Amino acid sequence: MTDPILDVADLSVRYPGATAPAVRNVSFTLGRERLGVVGESGSGKSTLGRALMRLMPAADITARRMQFEEVDLLAARERQMLKLRGRRMSMILQDPKFSLNPIRRCGDQIAEAYRTHFRCSKAQAHDKAVEMLDAVQIREPERVYRLYPHEVSGGMGQRVMIAMMLLTDPDLVIADEPTSALDVTVRLQVLRILDDLVREKGIGLIMISHDLNLVRNFCDRVLIMYAGRVVETLKARDLDRAQHPYTRGLLAAQPRIAGDRGDLPVLQRDPAWEQEARP
Amino acid sequence: MKPVVISDLSVAFGALRVLHDVSFDVAAGECFGLVGESGSGKSTVLRCASMLWSKWTGEVRIGDRSVREMSAADRCRTLQMVFQDPFGSLHPRHSIRTVLSEPLKIQNIPDRDDRMAQALCDVGLPVDFLDRYPHQLSGGQRQRVAIARALIVEPDVLFLDEPTSALDVSVQAEIINLLMRLRGEKGLTYVMVSHDLAVIDHMCDRFAVMQAGRVVEVLNREAIAGNGATQAYARDLIDASLEYERAL
User: ABC transporter domain spans which residues (chain B) (predicted)?
Assistant: First the structure.
């Protein structure tokens, strides 16, 4: 990797009052690739995403290095972060029902994202937003522009969210469970749109998910997290050859179509997983 | 073991018709799935059949009796429900003892302590959990309590409304194994709503595909792997799930 977008070394995050850190000594680099972060609830994967965006003012974030392109995220001032967030690094959240402003039209929210970061007229921002709605394959962009979030379906809402986040041509997109709230039938469609745009624009993508299937199909590399630490890093296509018992346990616990319907192997947790060094 | 027969179940909320003549049969001891996208009416079928919502037309029979004829107490001893989110379905300020003893009191069932201990044992929890509160349990443990609560009155039929979709895969496996074991041991009939065809395939013998308040098609489990659906929507749904799983 010649030109990493993100370089993180020994990142730890501790919530105020918590006995143990939520994220412990996580290190990775991200190039123009799609990185999956997988783990159970409480494994610290969302905390990791938020820490990278510096969205946790109360938590105690320490790291040896946290470099986003030329910016040192540890030392950056909030003013500088405001210029980065939404412009060069952006985040797609789980459920459009909660992440879009319910009392503003979808299109205006997208246009606002553009006008926050670029000097332009309202008309230009409007055109940009419509263009972007078209890029996320919304059929009547002008009509959808004028709709309120409650008037669009979950899949469409998530595409509005993607449009908003990719409009400013960011270099890094963090997608936190982008499709968990969607039905299977629209999930793939939304993922493909995100995937196409990410590849086309050469964006570095961090896909946070609990779904091994999803990261296997839509990521190049996967970090497996357990109890706040990375227990294994793999190429997505090598997921079947995972070495760590936790990864193997997760894979085995999943019911499969046309499986033998026997008892599903249950994950046997080993306390040592919380301690051992990263392979 | 009792069969469940639903015929011509229709519901309207005001001018909006949400279920259109839904009919299907579930054999005694069978596990029957309901799949479809959100808003297709899967959960509404369960809510109507369990009389949580009573303004519907059509008929729901469990064994040889219509659910409408049964008294509330009778109905609760015949059918019970497990909900999706164990964080929302247990009262945060009631101990597990209270949660489990309430149905026993209502139903005038004796030997409460023994039954509560047995119910926890059935779902694989230690008996000293009786004095815990929901916030002291993990998601999987809470779902086990919800199952114990449903089973403590010894129902014949269990309605499962997305029983594992709020849980991690590893915990989902435990709950699925538990549900399968209990069905065998207690001769229960299940009607299960799920959006995950892999879970349906693992647990159910047959399932109905729903769309916009209608049953599009009733299929055997075998129809999933080879996509044997004949209706366009059912085919699309199975295709999408297969594609999602394709790398496995």
Answer: 4-237
Q: Is B232 on the interface with A (CB under 8 A)?
A: no
Contact A37, A45 (CB under 8 A): yes
| Inter-chain residue contact B201 with A212, CB threshold 8 Å | no
Domain A6-254+262-274 sits in CATH 3.40.250.10 = no
Q: Do A250 and B169 touch (CB under 8 A)?
A: yes
Do the beta carbons of residue B83 and residue B143 sit within 8 Å? Answer: no
Summarize pLDDT for B107-129 with one digit per residue, the tens.
Answer: 999 999 999 999 999 998 999 99
* Res. B248: pLDDT tops 50: no
CB of B235 less than 8 A from some CB of A? no
Task: Kindly report, residue by residue over A177-226, the tens digit of the pLDDT.
Answer: 988 878 888 888 889 999 998 999 999 999 999 888 888 889 999 999 99
Residue B190: which CATH number?
3.40.50.300
Contact map slice: B 132-151 vs A, CB within 8 A = 139
Nearest-Cα distance to chain A for B245, in Å, is 6
Position B141 in a domain: no
- Determine contact: B87 vs chain A, CB below 8 A: no
Structural domain contains residue B107: no
- The tokens for B128 are 């000293």
Structural domains counted in chain B: 1
What pTM value is reported for the model? Answer: 0.85
Answer yes or no: is B131 within a domain: no
Query: Using CB atoms and an 8 Å cut-off, which of residues 7-66 of chain B contact chain A?
Result: 37-38
Separation between Cα atoms, residue B27 and residue B29, nearest integer Å: 6
Low-confidence stretches of chain A (pLDDT beneath 50)? 1, 278-279
Q: What is the pLDDT of residues B5-20, one digit of tens each?
A: 999 999 998 888 999 9
Among B87, B168, B178, pick the best mutation site for testing chain A contact (most A Cβ within 10 A).
Answer: B168
CB contact under 8 A, A264 and B202: yes
Question: Can you tell me the distance from the alpha carbon of B116 to that of B112, in angstroms, rounded to the nearest whole number?
Answer: 6
pLDDT of amino acid A2: 57
Domain locations in chain A as residue ranges:
6-254+262-274
* A84: three-class secondary structure by DSSP: helix
pLDDT digits (tens, 9 = 90+) for B37-93: 888 899 999 999 999 999 999 999 999 999 999 999 999 999 999 998 777 889 999
